[in-house]
């Protein structure tokens, strides 16, 4: 083999490499070096292949759907540069479905199956005895004691709000109740149910169940559509609280500015509809927008910004498919064309999203305004970077821990706290902070 033919062979080898890169979509970026000029492309190919952004998701899609806009799925992978301490603060719990920091570094934590409400001290890892006076729950399937939060005036009122699945005539409902935490922190007094997301249904799936206070001291409650066909179609109905975001006062009454107050065929508490099973909720620290994450079927988990009176499309449209592999409805994914709100972002394959929290703290500056979401089936915490209402980056944290991450909160000190279905509470903080 002569020297000349060897260099020609190298040239074609490099050319094939570049063409292969282009075929993989890696060259489909805003980089100016295109494949038009083969010599230039050959020169640049080595650098380009290492610089090109790749998706945080490495697994193939499970559906044929295409996003409505480029930022709607499979965002570029980002990596936290801050050195982190990852610590298991507590172990041996049940499914800690909901958590709230009611006092500096002290959390109220629900236990889904046992329906216990516990106090966890993040500084010494201690766990209290169960607080007395919590409600009776139906703990079959996905039911039990779910979320917990405190009233904005908790320091004076000591009011604690919880969600749970409750037995009533005809089946079970997602219920909201409130009670007063005694001074000795041993009991919830005068516990009462303030809201039931009727109709009842005889099933154990898709309760939704997140609650959060708005700046006016009213509550947003999320529900699920109870999963089964045909009950799940009630997500589209304005005379049912299934598959909804609901806006109520601390007494469980509809907030008087709600979008369907004037509609006599609609339930007054409804704020938005067409949801599947909303498992996470928080307000964006800068815009004040209400963001939710809802479980899709097989793929099609959605991140949505909630606008009053809007329809988010389930189960008419979805970026996911049935667990059987069948299409949902007619297999239409485009929301906007059908008159529904497009998700800000969706996952394909699933991220199995659960509790979520925006990061609004100086402790880890690069995390400011990022969204953190617990992942249940792929076992990681999702970090989402948002700019101008679009997802521009995604990271998967603690993948090596292989835990089902259930709920996420950010403490006053800026630590990220994550509970798992395996009974652990993680604390993730900047290394050397000593907090
Ligand atoms: Ca949707």
What is the overall pLDDT average? 90
Gyration radius over CA? 24 Å
Structural class: mainly beta
Bound molecules: calcium ion
Multimeric organization? single chain
Portion in beta strands: 25-35%
For the terminal residues, how far apart are their CA atoms? 67 Å
SSE arrangement:
Blueprint: H1 3-23, H2 38-51, E1 84-90, E2 99-103, E3 106-110, E4 117-121, E5 145-150, H3 154-157, E6 159-168, E7 171-181, E8 188-196, E9 211-213, E10 219-222, E11 244-248, E12 270-273, E13 278-283, E14 290-294, E15 301-305, E16 345-347, E17 353-358, E18 371-375, E19 381-387, E20 390-397, E21 405-410, E22 416-420, E23 425-430
Bound molecules: calcium ion.
Brief write-up:
The chain has 435 residues and is mostly beta strands.
Keywords:
mainly beta, 3 helices, binds calcium ion, disordered N terminus, 435 residues, 4-stranded antiparallel sheet, globular
Provide a descriptive summary of the structure in words.
With 435 residues, this protein is mainly beta. Helices cover 9% and strands 31% of the residues. The chain contains three helices and 23 strands. The chain has helices at residues 3-23, 38-51, 154-157; strands spanning 84-90, 99-103, 106-110, 117-121, 145-150, 159-168, 171-181, 188-196, 211-213, 219-222, 244-248, 270-273, 278-283, 290-294, 301-305, 345-347, 353-358, 371-375, 381-387, 390-397, 405-410, 416-420, 425-430. The strands form six sheets. A four-stranded antiparallel β-sheet has the order 1-23-22-21, with no helix packed on it. A four-stranded antiparallel β-sheet has the order 5-6-7-8. Strand 19 and strand 20 (390-397) form a beta hairpin. Helix 1 packs across helix 2. The relative contact order is 0.13.
């Amino acid at each position: 083999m002569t020297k000349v033919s060897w260099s020609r062979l190298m040239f074609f080898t490099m050319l094939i490499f570049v063409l292969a890169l282009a075929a993989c979509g890696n060259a489909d970026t805003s980089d100016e070096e295109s494949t038009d000029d083969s010599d230039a492309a050959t020169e640049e190919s080595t650098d380009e292949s290492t610089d090109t952004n790749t998706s945080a998701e490495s697994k193939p899609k499970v559906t044929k759907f295409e996003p409505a806009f480029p930022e709607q799925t499979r965002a570029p992978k980002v990596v936290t540069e801050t050195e982190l301490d990852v610590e298991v603060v507590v172990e041996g719990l049940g499914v800690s479905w909901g958590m709230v920091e009611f006092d500096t570094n002290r959390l109220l934590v629900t236990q889904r199956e046992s329906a216990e409400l516990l106090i966890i001290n993040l500084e010494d890892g201690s766990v209290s005895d169960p607080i007395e006076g919590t409600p009776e729950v139906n703990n079959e399937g996905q039911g039990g004691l779910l979320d917990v939060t405190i009233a904005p005036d908790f320091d004076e009122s000591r009011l604690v709000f919880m969600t749970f699945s409750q037995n009533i005539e005809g089946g079970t409902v997602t219920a909201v109740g409130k009670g007063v935490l005694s001074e000795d922190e041993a009991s919830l007094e005068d516990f009462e149910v303030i809201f039931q997301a009727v109709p009842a249904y005889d099933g154990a799936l898709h309760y939704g169940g997140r609650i959060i206070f708005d700046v006016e001291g009213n509550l947003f409650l999320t529900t699920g559509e109870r999963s089964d066909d045909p009950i799940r179609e009630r997500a589209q109905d304005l005379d049912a609280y299934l598959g909804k975001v609901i806006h109520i006062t601390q007494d469980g009454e509809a907030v008087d500015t709600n979008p369907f107050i004037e509609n006599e065929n609609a339930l007054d508490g409804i704020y938005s509809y067409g949801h599947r099973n909303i498992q996470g909720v928080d307000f964006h620290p800068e815009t004040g927008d209400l963001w939710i994450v809802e479980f899709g079927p097989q793929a099609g988990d959605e991140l949505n910004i909630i606008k009053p009176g809007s329809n988010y499309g389930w189960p008419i449209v979805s970026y996911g498919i049935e667990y059987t592999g069948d299409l949902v409805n007619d297999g239409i994914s485009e929301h906007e064309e059908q008159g529904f709100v497009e998700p800000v972002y969706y996952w394909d394959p699933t991220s199995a999203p659960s509790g979520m929290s925006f990061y609004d703290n100086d402790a880890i500056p690069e995390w400011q305004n990022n969204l953190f979401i617990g992942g249940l089936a792929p076992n990681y915490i999702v970090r989402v970077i948002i700019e101008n209402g679009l997802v521009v980056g995604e990271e998967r944290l603690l993948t090596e821990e292989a835990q089902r991450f259930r709920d996420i909160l950010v403490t006053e000190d800026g630590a990220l706290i994550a509970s798992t279905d395996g009974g652990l509470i993680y604390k993730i903080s900047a290394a050397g902070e000593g907090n």
